[in-house]
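Let's sit down with a protein and look at its sequence and fold side by side. Go ahead whenever you are ready, and we will take it from there.
>
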Amino acid sequence: MQTPYLLVLYYSRHGATAQLARHIARGAEAAGIEARLRTVPPVSADCEATASSVPDTGAPYCTLDDLRHCSGLALGSPTRFGNMAAPLKYFLDNTSEIWLSGALIDKPAGVFTSSASLHGGQETTLMSMMIPLLHHGMVIAGIPYREASLNKTQTGGTPYGASHVAGAQGQNKIDQDEINLCQAQGKRLGELALALRRTA
């Protein structure tokens, strides 16, 4: 049997979403599950543009097998007009073979995001990322209000998933409440992945 892992899959243009992903991975590892960080390549309006098969820096690009065999998923994107970024949507649009096989049914999933401003569409972006996961039959897990940081955060953090307010120039560092919520979400997803795997 394959070793269980939480797939932390994200797109990050300026680095904030990637930082959130690393904190979620730490939370998952605290639950005793491997965290596998993966990203997706950018998309281009230039039909001649091609991306290298390996990114220059950061996490490797996600394969369909990374997604197919995960025990749980944390999906992250910056906000794009209240929606997920096109590169992540493009990746998800190409997962029909996984949907047809039912490989993700009953596996836990959560979402996370970063925006430039406090009211920059974080919650709608999180909801937009949940929709394809529901179509895949995944079990959506948010952040419960038992997490103290959810009640006192002055920046990012929602019950729908972890988030960060980066600022117009990306000048805001991830604060402690945002870190706490990322790690709590990762830990919860890791625990759920292990528990649901035992009942499968």
Observations:
- Helices lie at 16-30, 64-68, 86-93, 96-101, 122-135, 148-152, 176-199.
